[in-house]
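Pipeline run #58 for the internal structure catalog. This entry was flagged by the ingest filter as a single-chain record with no existing model, so it goes straight to prediction. Upstream metadata was stripped on purpose; only the residue string is passed forward. Reviewer on rotation: M.T. Logging verbosity set to normal.
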Amino acid sequence: MALLTGSLPMLPAAAANRRGSGPQENAPSVVALGGGHGLSSSLSALRLLTSELTAVVTVADDGGSSGKLREELGVLPPGDLRMALAALCDDTDWGRTWRDVMQHRFTSKQGADGSLDNHALGNLLIVTLWELLGDPVAGLQWAGALLGARGRVLPMASVPLTIEGDVLSEVDGVLRMRTVSGQSQLAVAGSAGNVNNVRLLPAGAPACVDALTAVELADWVILGPGSWYTSVLPHLLLPELREALCSTTAKRCLTMNLSNETKETVGMSAVDHLEVIRRYAPEFTVDVVIADPTVIGNRDEFVAAVAEMGGRAVLGKVGSSTGKPVHDPLRLATAFHDMFGEN
C-alpha cells in the first residue's frame, strides 16, 4: 500500500524561487533518449536551452548497485535514471548539493562483502519512493521535485529489460558465435569480437506510456550519445518506442560519440555506427546528425551516410578541451541551439 497520498508536490520552495532564471520562454519541447554518461552529457547541454525537457532512459542495467537492487527487489534498475536526474539539477548550491547527495556512494569497511558497499544513495532514494508510491513514474517525479530538476525523467519501459547479443569471436583459430546476456557483459563484448543480433528481453515488453506520449508531442527527439549497443540502440529495439520514434512529427537528431573505440565497438568507424541504426531500424530517419569532425573519418563518406538516413550532418567541435572523449555542455548546447534555430 502506498504510504504517500494526494497530488504530487510543487517544487521545493528553495528551488521554486530560482525558476525565473534559466531557459528562455517559447523554447522547444525536447525528448532526449539514452542512458549513463552519454545521456547526462546531452541533458547537461539541453537544460541550458529549455525547461520543456524529458529524459527517456534505458532500464537494462544489471551491474553494480543497480544490478543488486534489481535482483534483490525486482525493481527497475535505478542507476541511469539517477544519473539523468543529477544532470538536470540546477547549477546552484541547491542543485550541486543534491546532485552530490544523489551520486554519493557508500564504502563499506567490510569491502565488497558489505551490504551497502558501492551503493549510490540516489539509487536507494529512488527505490524508496517507488516502494512508497507503487509507481515508477510518480516516484521519479517526486525525486525530480526534491532536486529542483529542470525537466523530468522517465524509464523507457515499465518493466526491467535484459539486453543480449551474439558475439562472433575467434577461439583457437576458429570463428565461433556465442550469446552474451546482460548489459554489463555485452558492453565489453565487442573487445573480443563482433556484436550481432542484439535484442531485448522480454520480447515485446511494454514501453512507458508517459515516454510514448512525450515522444509524440515533442518538437525534437535526440538520440545519443552513449554506449551504442547498450544505451542508444535499445530505444529502437523496444517495439512500441521504436514505432513512436519513427512516427512522431518531431524532428529527429542523432548525436555521435566522441570515440569510436569503446569496448563494445572496437574497430567500428562513425559510418559503421550509423549502419547499426539503419540495420536494426531501417525506417528510422533523422533530420540532423551532430558529430565532432575529429571522429568521423572520411568526411564525404560520413555526410553521404547521413543523407541516406534522410538528414544532414552538422560537424563542429563539441568535445571537452581536456582531450577526454566527453562532450562539453556549452559546446554541445551551442550546436543544439543552432540546430533548433535552423530547422
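catalog note: The longest strand covers residues 162-171.
catalog note: The chain has 15 helices and ten strands.
status: ready for reviewer M.T.
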